[in-house]
Design a protein that fits this description.
The structure is a single chain. The chain has 295 residues and is mainly beta. It folds into 3 domains: 95 residues, Immunoglobulin-like; 124 residues, Sandwich (Immunoglobulin-like); 58 residues, no CATH class. The chain is 0% helix and 51% strand. The chain has no helices and 24 strands. The protein is rod-shaped, with a radius of gyration of 30 Å.
Length: 295
């Protein structure tokens, strides 16, 4: 056995003749030519278990493998293992060196969210770790993802505790940088439901919509778990001839007739108007609530 050559194999995605390939690159710091490389491609079949999908011997400092949707699919975590040996004496091998696992498919950043019912928007990034290919000349180059939300963890699933700023996003081709070859963002907000229903868990799913690229068919990305922290709701009241209790507990009466601004938010488009009419007749000057309008 030769010593470790510090080949440092790395798996990266790239387009080759319009098709998505994975490339295993390795570079010995002090090669002793002539050298051959044996490259073993494998994927994670179950936790801790790998399945071999391809092997080749090459003099090149790289190896390509096409993502064909059969041997190599979206959703796979892929590894390459490289061994070097001298041409003509394959028994003198270096120690095999593993790349890190490369996940091919859709990722969400962050992978999970913990938010509160406070009206704040949280940015969720949807990215593809592989390039977006153009299957034909007249096709628009994009992958459209349909987004959906669902309630989890409740014995009787109700409406989800979260709202999204968009129902679908488009992933457009871009140069690969870091772990992203295409990205889009959507904001997630916890629904202020005026109910003391405890902390609840929802999830966000993404599904490719009618992709023309065969690679994207039958692919279901993993979901995002969103935990919503329940917050007590503020209450204010106006009742009978109107007695008013404010959010912070002040109590007073208002016997005026007319339309009034009961409450207005300074941070969002929300306000409530009330209308008070005379309901005391000739006996007393009394006003009662007769209408409400909320934006």
């Amino acid at each position: 056995k030769l010593t470790s050559l510090a080949l440092q194999p790395v798996v990266t995605p790239e387009l080759v003749q319009g098709r998505v390939h994975l490339k295993c690159s390795y570079s010995p710091r002090s090669p002793e030519p002539p050298v051959q490389y044996r490259v073993l491609w494998s994927r994670l079949s179950s936790p801790g278990q790998r399945e071999q999908i391809h092997q080749e011997t090459t003099p090149q400092p790289f190896s390509h493998l096409a993502m064909d949707g059969a041997n190599l699919r979206l959703g796979d975590t892929v590894f390459c293992t490289v061994t070097a040996f001298k041409r003509g004496s394959p028994e003198q091998q270096s120690l095999p060196e593993d790349s890190k696992g490369f996940y091919a498919g859709i990722k969400f950043l962050p992978e999970s969210l913990e938010i509160a019912e406070d009206g704040k928007e949280h940015v969720l990034t949807v990215l593809s770790t592989v390039p977006i290919a153009c299957p034909g000349q007249d096709d628009s180059c994009k992958i459209t993802l349909q987004l959906s939300t669902e309630d989890l963890g409740s014995q009787e699933p109700g409406p989800p505790d979260i709202a999204l700023s968009a129902c679908q996003v488009d992933l457009l081709p871009d140069s690969c940088s870091g772990s992203s070859c295409a990205a889009a963002t959507v904001t997630v907000t916890a629904v202020t439901d005026f109910a003391q229903d405890g902390n609840r868990v929802s999830r966000i799913r993404a599904r490719p919509v009618a992709p023309r690229d065969l690679l994207w068919r039958d692919y279901t990305p993993s979901h995002v778990k969103v935990t919503v922290r329940d917050l007590p709701t503020g209450n204010c009241y106006s009742f009978t001839d109107p007695h008013i209790i404010t959010f912070d507990g002040w109590r007073y009466d208002s016997h005026k007739i007319g339309t009034f601004l009961l409450c207005r938010s300074e941070s969002r488009a929300f306000q409530v108007h009330i209308r008070q009419w005379d309901c005391g007749g000739h006996r007393s000057a009394t006003a009662c609530n007769c209408g409400v309008a909320a934006q």
